[in-house]
Design brief:
With 384 residues, the protein is α+β, with helices and mostly antiparallel strands. It has two domains: 134 residues, Copper Amine Oxidase, Chain A, domain 1 (2-Layer Sandwich); 215 residues, Aminopeptidase. 28% of the residues lie in helices and 22% in strands. Helix 2 packs across helix 5.
């Protein structure tokens, strides 16, 4: 079960009794989402005690019926069979999930799961990994347990540098490497004014190694040596020769056993990795950080929402802290690129990133245990 103080009352489920039977897939021993407190030497995402939530095998993976998830997390639900869509509601959240799709909406924001929602026998199912490491952190962060306090040390990673220009808009003479460093320096000032200790992976126009591989690894090493509480890697997007696509994307490292978002393309190969990387220990917290950044950056910039996604980033792979990679806008889109060429807009990007970090820090502080109040001393027992 979840920690005693966090258990939630059961609510009515979305399917009538006649629909509760699912297909003939065999069931395995019940397990609980691995979100409880773990021993310090196991890392934050170590699996906790078993619970009564039943697991169903579908397409060779472990899935939970959303009927059961709805009850466990305390949501009310509405099921529309004709659209295969389930809506979950509580006092502060609205989630929309569709059978056969990886894309869900969380409070109006696009989030891409690592596995599709599956419909069987009138019920929808979500993969165990997506429930544990993506959805529950966004909806019930208190269930993560008091494992990470409010961040103090933040590493900012201005993408590219030196001979690596990153994305370019040549007609506008814009280079990604210059814009990322500009935003990072602005963001550093904002965060330091709020009391954070801030480290930049680069402070000038340089590449941190003789090639991209060593450059990426050097950035991760700087982050780990700084004992960072989180990393934000700052980037600008491009899809040349496509000049119409616009918007903001926020990435975390792909969860073990799942495909990256890019590999779901029509011609891409399955790139799932069965062996977890170092950063996968922090999947739930990275998902929560990404959601906060996603909401605040889009809210600040008013950009098109291209979703919260995952990628196999070398910079993120070996990190010992939660981390996100933010693609603020597209340099291949002239309208967005013209805005990105102005100091005022770069300041807006920095402010949106700062707001996202602040929202994440506030949530962690909120779910952290408060120190026990010391008993009052009776005047009759006090010493003169």
């Amino acid at each position: 079960m979840f920690p005693a103080g966090l258990r939630l009352a059961l609510v009515a489920t979305f399917a009538p009794a006649a629909l509760l039977a699912v297909d003939s897939a065999p069931r395995v021993a019940p397990t609980r989402p691995g979100l409880a407190a773990a021993a310090a030497n196991q890392g934050p995402a170590a699996v906790g005690k078993p619970s009564s939530l039943p697991v169903t095998r579908l397409i060779g993976l472990e899935y939970f019926a959303l009927r059961d998830v709805t009850a466990l997390l305390g949501f009310k639900s509405t099921w529309v069979e004709s659209t295969r869509r389930l809506t979950l509601l509580d006092a502060t959240n609205r989630i929309e999930l569709t059978g056969g799709s990886r894309e869900i909406a969380v409070n109006g924001l696009r989030v891409f799961l690592g596995n599709p929602i599956i419909q069987r026998g009138g019920l929808l199912f979500i993969s165990k990994t997506d429930l544990e490491r993506c959805l529950t952190p966004l909806l019930r962060p208190a269930l993560l347990g008091p494992l990470l306090g409010r961040p103090r040390i933040i590493v900012l990673d201005p993408g590219h540098g030196g001979q690596d220009n990153g994305m370019e808009n040549k007609p506008l003479k814009l280079k990604e490497k210059a814009l990322t460093l500009d935003v990072a320096q602005r963001l550093k000032k904002l965060l330091e004014a709020r009391g954070y200790q801030v480290v930049l992976t680069r402070t000038d126009d340089r590449q941190l190694g003789p090639d991209k591989q060593t450059d990426f690894l050097a950035r991760a090493d700087i982050t780990n040596r700084a004992k960072a509480d989180l990393l934000v890697s700052i980037h600008f997007n491009s899809l040349y020769p496509d000049t119409k696509t616009s918007g903001t994307e926020v990435y975390t490292f792909t969860r073990a056993g799942q495909r990256s978002d890019r590999s779901w393309g029509a011609v891409e190969k399955d790139d799932a990795e069965t062996t977890p990387s170092e950063i996968n220990r922090f999947d739930p917290w990275s998902a929560l950080l990404a959601h906060c950044m996603h909401r605040e950056v889009i809210g600040t910039l008013k950009t098109f929402d291209r979703g919260q996604k995952t990628m196999h980033s070398i910079v993120l792979r070996g990190l010992k802290c939660p981390a996100v990679l933010v693609e603020s806008v597209f340099l291949s889109n002239d309208s967005e690129a013209r805005r990105a060429a102005t100091p005022a807009y770069l300041q807006q990007i920095a402010e949106g990133l700062a707001s996202g970090i602040g929202a994440y820090a506030d949530l962690l502080e909120k779910i952290s245990p408060k120190p026990a109040a010391r008993p009052a001393v009776s005047p009759s027992n006090s010493k003169s």
